[in-house]
Specification:
Length: 123
Amino acid sequence: MASDEEEKNTNNEGMEYGILGDDTETDLEKLEKYTGEVDWKYLEKHYQSGALLYIDPSLDLVAVGKAFADDDSKSVAKWKKSGDIVQPSTPHAYYWEESDSRFKALVVSPFVLIQPIEEEQSE
């Protein structure tokens, strides 16, 4: 005779929990989902911890995030060498705080990648 615990296990053997574990989003879709707009006050703690990286607006933020997530060190090194990725310094932080700058940000642990959001010019 089976114990109550064995009977419970036997009754659940055919169950599938696909809804809980089925993630069909691509890596790019996941990165885009976790990209958002933030102000400098939100980013300041990441700057102070050394985790903040400025991404030149000529680059696609999500594509750069994917390179970080995929450990594509060749692309990252190329962007750093060309100055397209820089670690902000004190003058950057001071300017962004004074100007109430806003950014598009993407967290790719342990880094926070940012790009400035340009204010629309009214004509």
